[in-house]
């Protein structure tokens, strides 16, 4: 008899002409935490969505508890004891925690919902697995970590024995991630099987028993956690040795290049309004901004770069006030910007690589004569940057939409870095890119700093903040909760500040 509660063999899945999974494979044992890792676009989330029945698979076999399943659907997956917590939570904001958990599976008392029975059942899961949550709060009143616990209780209440977690720590502080790991250990001890999708190798090594690796939609191999290490896993993921820990050069900071004074601006929600923020960035340093997404980082960057109106306060670039100037005027004064969403604000995906690269040079005399763009000069310039920044493929006449996420991001990075501005604002520069592109982009940011440019780095990846920043400020609910030097900072201290603690308290965390 097989000891596997899940077996997926020879799995293929195409979306039109795109092959998302080719010969996918995974075997999960009862009572284990099995990590599924790979670069962005490697096919790991797609594999698990096939297991959960969100898409039909084109070829291959799926077995659950020794039963071969031909036509998987989410309802059938639930009936088979499979539950999935997605990256985007499936919760109704205006309903309470209890109402969300019971929704669609309500215990009945006659024709009405038996909330007393439902509450008692939910309390059992809370007590058994340490899933601390207040059932009468509405979803919009709870933290992201609490919302994740609601999702876990929801699938447990539907009888899940096989639990799929898709990038579960992406939105958590280090403390919340540690709390999640304790919950997963209790689930494992209770005989449940956990499939942990991630790209964070330190977490994979901390929590998993076995690790399966995918690359470019294909299965690479499965290893025991005790018989591998992060370097080997990274090599399996990308096909070559990878160095993510950039050697940080000594700080040689110069004049103040950015001075933000008592800045106030609107927010997408109440906790992201910017309220009285002040800080400085100097030449030759990287100032990192850490914080859980949605605490005002996006609004702050938009206000600095001219994309959002400043209601009060000043933004000064190299001694010159730029508050509420147009984006083009701010760029002309020496600010460059890698936006957090390359598709929305960084690229025109319908245009070619060379057109995106020279977009900021249209009108420059070096690129046009009598208002007519020099095609050859533009392509030559784009070819130089493609070579310098390792944009692949090298054919700059290709449409940008044909590029992978990492190479598309390199187009944005190349264009902005080549401007040689006074300040580079890098907002989530490695979000949604593969591990090879992360290595490249981090090295580029370090070189920009070494050349004397000031860098303002915003990242949801604490490892990235810690590895690159010379100083770090932490944002919580639209304000700065604390500031640390690189030598003072740890993920524990940053996590404490990300939850609203103060610098002096974080020093003892």
Automatic annotation (TrEMBL):
<keyword id="KW-0547">Nucleotide-binding</keyword>
<keyword id="KW-0067">ATP-binding</keyword>
<dbReference type="InterPro" id="IPR003439">
    <property type="entry name" value="ABC_transporter-like_ATP-bd"/>
</dbReference>
<dbReference type="InterPro" id="IPR027417">
    <property type="entry name" value="P-loop_NTPase"/>
</dbReference>
<dbReference type="GO" id="GO:0005524">
    <property type="term" value="F:ATP binding"/>
</dbReference>
<feature type="domain" description="ABC transporter">
    <location>
        <begin position="6"/>
        <end position="241"/>
    </location>
</feature>
<dbReference type="InterPro" id="IPR050107">
    <property type="entry name" value="ABC_carbohydrate_import_ATPase"/>
</dbReference>
<protein>
    <submittedName>
        <fullName>ABC transporter ATP-binding protein</fullName>
    </submittedName>
</protein>
<dbReference type="Pfam" id="PF00005">
    <property type="entry name" value="ABC_tran"/>
</dbReference>
<dbReference type="InterPro" id="IPR017871">
    <property type="entry name" value="ABC_transporter-like_CS"/>
</dbReference>
<dbReference type="InterPro" id="IPR003593">
    <property type="entry name" value="AAA+_ATPase"/>
</dbReference>
<feature type="domain" description="ABC transporter">
    <location>
        <begin position="258"/>
        <end position="502"/>
    </location>
</feature>
């Amino acid at each position: 008899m097989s000891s596997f509660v899940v077996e997926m063999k020879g799995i293929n899945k195409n979306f039109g002409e795109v092959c998302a999974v080719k010969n996918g494979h995974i075997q999960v044992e009862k009572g284990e935490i099995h990590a599924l890792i790979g670069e962005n676009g490697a096919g790991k989330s797609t594999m698990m969505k096939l297991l959960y029945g969100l898409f039909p698979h084109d070829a291959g076999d799926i077995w659950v508890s020794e039963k071969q399943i031909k036509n998987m659907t989410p309802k059938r997956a639930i009936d088979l004891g499979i539950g999935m917590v997605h990256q985007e939570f499936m919760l109704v904001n205006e309903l309470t925690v209890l109402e969300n958990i019971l929704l669609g599976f309500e215990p009945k008392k006659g024709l009405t919902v038996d909330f007393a029975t439902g509450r008692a059942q939910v309390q059992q899961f809370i007590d058994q697995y340490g899933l601390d949550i207040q059932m009468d709060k509405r979803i919009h009143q709870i933290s992201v970590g609490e919302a994740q616990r609601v999702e876990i209780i929801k699938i447990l209440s539907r009888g899940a024995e096989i639990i799929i977690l898709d990038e579960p720590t992406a939105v958590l502080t280090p403390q919340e991630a540690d709390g999640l790991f304790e919950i997963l250990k209790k689930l494992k001890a209770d005989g449940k099987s956990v499939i942990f999708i991630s790209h964070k190798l330190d977490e994979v090594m901390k929590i998993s028993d076995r690790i399966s690796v995918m690359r470019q939609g294909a299965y690479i191999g499965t290893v025991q956690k005790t018989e591998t290490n992060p370097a080997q896993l990274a090599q399996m993921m990308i096909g070559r040795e990878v160095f993510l820990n950039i050697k940080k050069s000594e700080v040689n900071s110069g004049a103040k290049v950015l001075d933000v004074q008592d800045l106030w601006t609107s927010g997408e929600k109440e906790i992201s309004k910017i309220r009285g923020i002040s800080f400085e960035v100097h030449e030759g340093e990287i100032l990192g901004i850490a914080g859980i997404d949605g605490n005002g980082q996006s609004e702050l960057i938009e206000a600095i770069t001219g994309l959002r109106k400043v209601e009060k306060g000043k933004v000064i670039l190299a001694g010159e006030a730029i508050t509420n100037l147009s984006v083009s005027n701010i760029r002309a004064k020496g600010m460059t910007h890698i936006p957090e969403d390359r598709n929305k604000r960084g690229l025109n995906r319908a245009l070619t690589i060379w057109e995106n690269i020279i977009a900021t040079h249209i009108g420059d005399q070096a690129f046009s004569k009598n208002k007519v763009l020099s095609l050859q000069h533009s392509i030559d310039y784009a070819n130089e940057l493609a070579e310098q920044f390792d944009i692949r493929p090298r054919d700059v006449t290709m449409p940008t939409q044909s590029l992978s996420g990492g190479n598309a991001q390199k187009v944005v990075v190349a264009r902005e870095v080549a401007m040689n501005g006074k300040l580079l604002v890098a907002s989530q520069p490695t979000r949604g890119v593969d591990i090879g592109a992360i290595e490249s982009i981090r090295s580029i940011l370090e070189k920009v700093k070494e050349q004397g440019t000031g860098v303002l780095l915003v990242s949801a990846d604490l490892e990235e903040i810690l590895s690159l920043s010379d100083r770090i400020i932490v944002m919580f609910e639209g304000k700065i909760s604390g500031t640390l030097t690189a030598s003072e900072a740890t993920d524990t201290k940053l996590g404490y500040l990300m939850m609203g603690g103060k610098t002096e308290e974080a020093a003892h965390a």
